[in-house]
């Protein structure tokens, strides 16, 4: 005797209401599509609700994935891609050394060597002077005036910015050099580029219309990226040490970046000045993204409420 195949239909709660099969249910946006079907619901209405649940689930998945793709393509940089982390002490530490007048003089003159030279000149003048005490005091006073005049001329406060930059580059090179005299390693070159970028950006902030300097800084940033990418391929350990030292992160090195008007506006290089006007298409796009974020947020809220209902009714 043959038995006809049969399919059992239920007009009660869907299979998800069975405790044994719901142990794996987790709180997620797809749960927002959940349709609660009461016992005794007509079969036609039950099918309609299930179709609606399926349709809503597809829409939720589509919206969530669209938002994820957008956010993956528009991930903000962790730090300033030009100046790096403002909390990093690399450049400020170097500038403290540069401004130290007890050890530094303009034109890369060593202060201790200059003091020795001035002392030797004074001693020679005293030896060649008369033994008369009055004359010797006058000679000492003249030499002291010479010393003050020379140190005033060579004082970093009285020199131009170029001398300070040269000294800062020297200290930056010493901080990352692999051995004394190292000037060619990628991390040293990146440190030198970083100092030049900081000095360049200071000038750009003070001179909005100096497009030539802005272009130079842009090229320095791109060159620094290129150098550090090369270092990452050759020696990842030294690469991560170097970017941490310089206040940079991996994303600002590996991602495509151009220091254009958008950067200057976002990082407020010239304050709140508007450099890039928002077009109508950009406004529409931003509005669509905002609505998409709001919908996804609503999915999460509704999913949370549905999850709580299922917990109360012992469905999970």
Task: Please provide a written account of the structure.
Among the domains are: 83-104 and 159-259, S15/NS1, RNA-binding (Helix Hairpins, Orthogonal Bundle); 105-155. With 316 residues, it is mainly α. α2 packs across α5 (161-176), α5 runs antiparallel to α6 and α7 (211-234) runs antiparallel to α8 (236-246). The relative contact order is 0.12. The model is unreliable at 1-23 (pLDDT under 50). The chain has eleven helices and no strands.
In short:
This protein is mostly helical and 316 residues long. The protein contains eleven helices and no strands.
Please, how many helices? 11
What CATH first level of the domain at 83-104 and 159-259 would be assigned?
Answer: Mainly Alpha
Please identify which CATH superfamily of the domain at 83-104 and 159-259 we are dealing with: S15/NS1, RNA-binding
- Uncertain runs with pLDDT below 50, 5 residues or more? 1-23
Distance between the termini: 42 Å
Q: In CATH terms, what is the architecture of the domain at 83-104 and 159-259? A: Orthogonal Bundle
What is the H/E order? Answer: HHHHHHHHHHH
| Fold-level CATH name of the domain at 83-104 and 159-259 | Helix Hairpins
Helix-strand category: mainly alpha
Gyration radius (Cα, Å) is: 36 Å
Helix content estimate: 55-70%
Give the tally of β-strands: 0
Note the beta-strand portion: under 5%
Largest sheet: none
Shape, per Cα inertia axes:
elongated
Determine the mean pLDDT: 84
């Amino acid at each position: 005797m043959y038995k006809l195949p049969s399919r059992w239909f239920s007009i009660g709660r869907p299979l998800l209401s069975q405790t044994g099969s719901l142990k794996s249910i987790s709180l997620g946006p797809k749960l927002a599509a959940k349709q609660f079907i009461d016992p005794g619901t007509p079969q036609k209405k039950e099918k309609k609700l299930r179709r609606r649940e399926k349709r809503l689930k597809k829409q939720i998945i589509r919206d969530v994935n669209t938002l994820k793709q957008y956010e993956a393509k528009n991930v903000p940089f962790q730090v300033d891609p030009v100046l790096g982390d403002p909390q990093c002490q690399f450049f400020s530490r170097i500038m403290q050394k540069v401004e130290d007048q007890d050890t530094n003089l303009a034109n890369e003159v060593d202060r201790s060597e200059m003091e020795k030279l001035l002392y030797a000149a004074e001693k020679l003048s005293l030896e060649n002077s008369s033994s008369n005490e009055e004359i010797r005091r006058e000679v000492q006073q003249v030499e002291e005036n010479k010393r003050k005049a020379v140190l005033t001329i060579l004082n970093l406060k009285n020199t131009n910015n170029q001398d300070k930059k040269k000294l800062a580059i020297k200290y930056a090179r010493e901080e990352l050099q692999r051995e004394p005299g190292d000037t060619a390693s990628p991390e040293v070159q990146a440190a030198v580029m970083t100092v030049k970028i900081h000095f360049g950006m200071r000038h750009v902030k003070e001179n909005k219309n100096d497009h030539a300097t802005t272009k130079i800084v842009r090229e320095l940033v791109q060159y620094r990226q290129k150098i550090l990418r090369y270092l990452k391929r050759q020696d990842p350990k030294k690469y991560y040490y170097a970017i941490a030292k310089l206040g940079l992160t991996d994303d600002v090195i590996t991602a495509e970046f151009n220091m254009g008007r958008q950067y200057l506006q976002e990082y407020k290089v010239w304050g709140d000045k508007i450099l890039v006007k928002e077009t109508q298409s950009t406004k529409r796009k931003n509005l669509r993204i905002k609505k998409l974020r709001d919908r996804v947020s609503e999915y999460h809220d509704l999913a949370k409420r549905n999850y709580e209902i299922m917990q109360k009714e012992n469905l999970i």
